[in-house]
């Protein structure tokens, strides 16, 4: 939306300084809005122009700024030009600002908005594989898996909305000794009925019991080893039990992810890469990268001059490890999906693991390894439900829904509605997401339900509330046709502030695409909600003259569309009523 104005100003600069317009584009940005204070709309950074070699670095920067500002002439688009500190401020003609920004929202407020901006041209598009969530069968689904799920979903949504083909992959922990234990334990503690009734719960229970048993009973451990060996040899009985555990788990997860608004194109897993592992080992051997240690393990030496860095690839009994399967998996994905870029989302404790993975891939001659990225995130402390520690994703979702439903019943603002449970669930989940996305992802935070679900302040409830309020305003005024509107009726500062803020939408998405951090987009949306609250108070629709009402409705429906669009990218399903 801002690109029309950026382009116009760049053209003006290009003409004045006899340079190509393009060189000015990176130095132009929308001015952040301050409540109630009048600001310029766009600004040109002189330091960026100096850094990029467009302006000479010699000479005092402020004098240079003022000199350039004086050279520039106003016109029908740019109403005012002034020098700030090392920036030149541009004020756009008010009517044109409203007209251009609200242009895309002519028909139907819930139409998908087209995200196109010249800014996005420099971003690479292609196939992006995003791997996220990746829980382990029969083990706990902890807060880290929830974070991976919502962050990965955000990254996938963002990439998709910027024109990439996205493959969403879940890489299950579906192989390893835990299945030996589970297989051995199932004959002792398992029940097919309970498995059908409540699969995740039952598998987890069996797993806990057999682990305890194995601690004091040598035979259980032997049975577990025996079962896993059978699995590795693809014994048909062992495999069919394993397959049943896996199928049931995937089926359950699918349902829970659906509640969360998350889906996957592929449910892959560690089990898929047993043959690939053999291939990896022989390739490493052929390339002379594999060394055998005194202890009998096989390792790749990644040591740099100052630091030793040894990565174990095979245990002394010849079995593979987590990283071995990851090497095989990466190569397999590249062959299958021809991704241009691959993104792994896990907590930061795995940073070293992924560094090693990328280094080994590189050493094996896979140059695409430099297009593999790890997005790390920090720890969440204290995520508990009323019944105790979180074990399953479902627990968290149920708790969020129950608490939200309770709050909604208490609140005077809540409207009567038929699907209160569903709304409570959607709002509860947005609250979790917003809490998680506010800061830098690498940061740790302490989880507190009360804080998360507050209706005031910068929460998911506030985002949803603002969206629902805008929808209600649109419903109540459906007799007003905002398909045509006269922008000269939008002169109040609270309306202008929204328009100015909307100028930043493409910049914010661009920024998020650069560092894959959701905070830029989230904070943009929260600010939009605050501005909307003021505008809502100050710009009544009902009772205003028709043309004023029309123009305001156009403003509010544009705001609603951008809000909904941004929320969806974050992975939040906007509610129309609450
Ligand atoms: N299942 C692993 C865990 O729970 C996460 C898998 C991450 N992805 C990967 N390709 N290693 O810690």
Summarize the structure.
The chain is α/β, with parallel strands linked by helices and 578 residues long. The chain has helices spanning 3-17, 46-51, 61-71, 94-102, 143-161, 177-189, 192-197, 199-216, 218-232, 236-260, 274-286, 322-337, 351-363, 393-410, 420-437, 449-452, 460-476, 493-502, 505-515, 519-538, 546-570; strands at 28-30, 42-45, 78-83, 87-92, 127-131, 165-172, 266-269, 290-292, 298-301, 310-314, 341-347, 372-377, 380-381, 384-385, 388-389, 445-446. Helices cover 52% and strands 12% of the residues.
Structure description:
This protein has 578 residues and is α/β, with parallel strands linked by helices. It has three domains: 3-92, Gyrase A, domain 2; 127-377, HUPs (Rossmann fold, 3-Layer(aba) Sandwich); 399-570, Isoleucyl-tRNA Synthetase, Domain 1 (Orthogonal Bundle). 52% of the residues lie in helices and 12% in strands. It contains 21 helices and 16 strands. It has helices at 3-17, 46-51, 61-71, 94-102, 143-161, 177-189, 192-197, 199-216, 218-232, 236-260, 274-286, 322-337, 351-363, 393-410, 420-437, 449-452, 460-476, 493-502, 505-515, 519-538, 546-570; strands at 28-30, 42-45, 78-83, 87-92, 127-131, 165-172, 266-269, 290-292, 298-301, 310-314, 341-347, 372-377, 380-381, 384-385, 388-389, 445-446. The strands form five sheets. The chain has a five-stranded parallel β-sheet with strand order 7-6-5-11-12, with helices on both faces. A four-stranded antiparallel β-sheet has the order 1-2-4-3. Helix 13 (351-363) links the parallel strand 11 (341-347) and strand 12 (372-377). The longest helix is centred in the middle third of the chain and has 25 residues, at 236-260. It binds arginine. Arginine (ARG) binds next to strand 11.
């Amino acid at each position: 939306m801002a690109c029309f104005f950026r382009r116009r100003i760049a053209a003006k600069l290009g003409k004045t300084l006899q340079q190509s317009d393009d060189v000015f584009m990176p130095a132009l940005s929308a001015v952040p809005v301050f409540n109630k204070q009048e600001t310029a709309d766009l600004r040109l950074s002189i330091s960026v122009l100096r850094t990029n070699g467009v302006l000479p670095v010699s000479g005092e920067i402020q004098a240079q700024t003022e000199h350039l500002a004086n050279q520039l002439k106003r016109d029908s688009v740019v109403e005012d030009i002034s020098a700030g500190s090392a920036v030149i401020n541009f004020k756009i003609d008010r009517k044109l600002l409203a007209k251009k920004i609200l242009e895309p929202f002519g028909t139907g407020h819930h139409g998908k908005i087209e995200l196109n901006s010249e800014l996005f041209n420099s971003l690479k598009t292609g196939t992006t594989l995003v791997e996220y969530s990746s829980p382990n069968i029969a083990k706990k689904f902890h807060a880290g898996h929830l974070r991976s799920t919502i962050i990965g979903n955000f990254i996938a949504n963002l990439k998709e909305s910027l024109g990439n083909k996205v493959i969403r992959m879940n890489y299950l922990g579906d192989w390893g000794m835990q299945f030996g234990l589970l297989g051995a334990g199932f004959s002792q503690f398992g029940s097919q009925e309970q498995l059908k009734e409540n699969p995740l719960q039952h598998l987890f229970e069996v797993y806990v019991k057999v682990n305890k048993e194995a601690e004091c009973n040598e035979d259980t451990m032997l049975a577990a080893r025996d079962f896993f060996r059978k699995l590795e040899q693809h014994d048909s009985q062992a495999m069919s039990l394993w397959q049943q555990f896996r199928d049931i788990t995937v089926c359950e997860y699918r349902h829970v992810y659906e509640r969360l608004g998350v889906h996957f194109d592929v449910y892959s897993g560690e089990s898929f890469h047993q043959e690939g592992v053999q291939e990896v080992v022989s390739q490493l051997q052929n390339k002379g990268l594999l060394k055998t240690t005194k202890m009998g393990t096989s390792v790749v030496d990644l040591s740099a001059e100052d630091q030793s860095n040894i990565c174990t690839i095979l245990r002394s009994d010849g079995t593979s490890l987590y990283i071995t399967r990851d090497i095989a998996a990466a190569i397999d994905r590249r062959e299958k999906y021809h991704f241009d870029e691959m993104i792994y989302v896990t907590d930061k404790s795995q940073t070293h693991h992924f560094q090693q993975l990328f280094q080994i891939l590189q050493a094996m001659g896979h140059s695409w390894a430099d297009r593999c990225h790890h997005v790390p995130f920090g720890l969440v402390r204290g995520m508990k439900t009323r019944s105790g520690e979180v074990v399953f994703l479902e627990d968290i979702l149920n708790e969020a829904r129950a608490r939200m439903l309770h709050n909604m019943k208490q609140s005077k603002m809540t409207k009567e509605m038929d699907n209160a449970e569903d709304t409570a669930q959607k709002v509860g989940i947005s609250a979790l997401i917003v809490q998680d996305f506010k800061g830098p992802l690498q940061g740790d935070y302490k989880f507190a339900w009360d804080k998360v679900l507050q209706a005031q302040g910068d929460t998911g409830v506030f985002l949803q509330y603002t969206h629902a309020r805008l929808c209600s305003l649109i419903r109540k005024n459906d007799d007003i046709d905002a398909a045509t509107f006269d922008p000269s009726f939008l002169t109040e500062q609270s309306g202008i502030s929204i328009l100015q803020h909307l100028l930043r939408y493409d910049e914010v998405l661009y920024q998020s695409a650069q560092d894959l951090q959701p905070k830029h987009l989230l904070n943009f949306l929260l600010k939009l909600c605050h501005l909307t609250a003021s505008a809502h108070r100050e710009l009544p629709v009902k009772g205003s003259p028709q043309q004023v009402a029309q123009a305001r409705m156009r403003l509010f429906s544009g705001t609603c569309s951008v809000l909904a669009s941004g929320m969806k990218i974050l992975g939040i399903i906007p509610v129309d009523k609450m």
